[in-house]
């Protein structure tokens, strides 16, 4: 039996993870499940998986969680300290699926106790990649990628020497506006940006997909995870989204990973690694699909890609600045204070200002310093939005 914990159990990745674990309850001993406001779901899953503890991030929801778990034998806890305590409980395998920078601290705690950490939370690597890798190494813990592109790269690298890699190509669907005339983007509405041509995801990641901020994050994530030069990492628009990534080797070979649109593939790969086990995902019928198409990404349409390149080249705390200012710019678009095309300008303003101040960019990467720069970048982004609003 393997002991497992799931951080962000009530979200889209968390629920897909639970779907896989619940199919084979004899194989897993569930330690901790964590969530935020969806107490009903958290309690339901903690009961059926017989978790040791369920934790909500919100202290005021503790009475609700206690009531929902009454008589189940599952411990209820709430708040940041409880989350940290639960993350420190020994588990063989931990899913990191909290959204945003809030996923960083629990992920580090799990690495500290030597767990294998399946990492869906891309913000951890973007904000503090060096810190995550250092923590893993110091505690003989293992990090496995769950973002589909990075899982694909990881799979294509099996048995290969990283020194023979010439390039890594991650694909992008292109999002809601891939076929729009560029001049029209400034008038894109929230509803238009929130509908994805290929799949159904949360609103924030769908908008990040239309702006390619999601892909920009993933370029940075690739550099941090695989430790390759930024000049060898590319994004490629692939509207069918069936090839998730390709690795190019120095002999000219390209290894592509082809798979259905189903996060249970990447989650299941990380769950069973280093073995492969049967997964309940669609088997692709390539003859029926007929063709796969590709286009070069246009940096005029998607300036986030250019900004990601700057972040990769700057290094240090630039990723944390990028992530935080992007979060605030996205809030600004959702609240109607920014146009779709203004988000990148806000992020660029903040990057220019804060990466120009060398004490920020060269600060030692600790959890506290990352939190501090995250906070500062949010304030700067807010100021930049206010300035634009006049
Ligand atoms: P989601 O919004 O569906 O779920 C987020 C989870 O985090 C929920 O359980 C929520 O309760 C919890 N949470 C939210 N705020 C929190 C806080 N402040 N403190 C503690 N817990 C909090 O998100 P998701 O789509 O499952 O994505 C999770 C992560 O995985 C993100 O980093 C995302 O970028 C990444 N990811 C998602 C997908 C996908 O297909 N959904 C694919 C690749 C990567
Ligand atoms: Mg992805």
UniProtKB/TrEMBL annotation:
Gene3D superfamilies: 1.10.1740.10, NAD(P)-binding Rossmann-like Domain. Residues 259-378 form the DXP reductoisomerase C-terminal domain. The keyword Metal-binding applies. Keywords: Isoprene biosynthesis, Magnesium, Manganese, Metal-binding, NADP, Oxidoreductase. Its EC number is 1.1.1.267. Its cofactor is Mg(2+); Mn(2+). GO terms for biological process: isopentenyl diphosphate biosynthetic process, methylerythritol 4-phosphate pathway involved in terpenoid biosynthetic process. InterPro entries: DXP_reductoisomerase (IPR003821), DXP_reductoisomerase_C (IPR013644), DXP_reductoisomerase_N (IPR013512), DXPR_C (IPR026877), DXPR_C_sf (IPR036169), NAD(P)-bd_dom_sf (IPR036291). HAMAP family: DXP_reductoisom. This is 1-deoxy-D-xylulose 5-phosphate reductoisomerase. It comes from Roseobacter litoralis (strain ATCC 49566 / DSM 6996 / JCM 21268 / NBRC 15278 / OCh 149).
């Amino acid at each position: 039996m393997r002991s497992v914990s799931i951080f962000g159990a009530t979200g889209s990745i968390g629920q897909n993870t639970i779907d896989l674990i619940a199919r084979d309850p004899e194989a897993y001993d569930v330690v901790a499940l964590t969530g935020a406001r969806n107490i009903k779901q958290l309690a339901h899953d903690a009961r059926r998986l017989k978790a040791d503890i369920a934790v909500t991030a919100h202290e005021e929801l503790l009475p609700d969680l206690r009531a929902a778990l009454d008589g189940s034998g599952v411990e209820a806890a709430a708040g940041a300290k409880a989350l940290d305590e639960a993350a420190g409980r020994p588990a063989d395998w931990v899913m990191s699926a909290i959204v945003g920078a809030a996923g960083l601290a629990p992920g580090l705690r799990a690495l500290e106790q030597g767990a294998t950490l399946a990492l869906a939370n891309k913000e951890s690597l973007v904000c503090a990649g060096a810190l995550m890798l250092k923590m893993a190494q110091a505690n003989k813990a293992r990090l496995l990628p769950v973002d589909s592109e990075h899982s694909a790269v990881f799979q294509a690298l099996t048995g290969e020497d990283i020194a023979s890699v010439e390039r890594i190509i991650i694909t992008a669907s292109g999002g809601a506006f891939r076929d729009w005339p560029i001049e029209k983007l400034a008038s894109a509405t929230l509803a238009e940006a929130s509908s994805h041509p290929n799949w159904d995801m949360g609103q924030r990641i769908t908008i990040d997909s239309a702006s390619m901020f999601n892909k920009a994050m993933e370029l940075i994530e690739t550099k941090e995870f695989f430790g390759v030069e930024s000049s060898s990492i590319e994004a490629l628009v692939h509207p069918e989204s069936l090839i998730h990534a390709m690795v190019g080797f120095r002999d000219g070979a390209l290894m592509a990973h082809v798979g259905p649109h189903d996060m249970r593939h990447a989650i299941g790969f990380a769950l069973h690694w280093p073995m492969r086990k049967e997964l309940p995902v669609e088997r692709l019928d390539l003859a029926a699909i007929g063709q796969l198409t590709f286009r070069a990404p246009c940096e005029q349409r998607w300036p986030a890609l250019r900004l990601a390149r700057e972040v990769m080249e700057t290094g240090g705390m630039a990723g944390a600045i990028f992530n935080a200012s992007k979060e605030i710019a996205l809030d600004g678009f959702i609240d109607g204070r920014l146009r779709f095309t203004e988000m990148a300008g806000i992020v660029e303003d903040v990057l220019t200002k804060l990466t120009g101040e060398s004490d920020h960019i060269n600060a030692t990467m600790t959890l506290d310093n990352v939190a501090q720069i995250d906070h500062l970048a949010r304030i700067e982004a807010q100021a930049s939005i206010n300035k634009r609003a006049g």
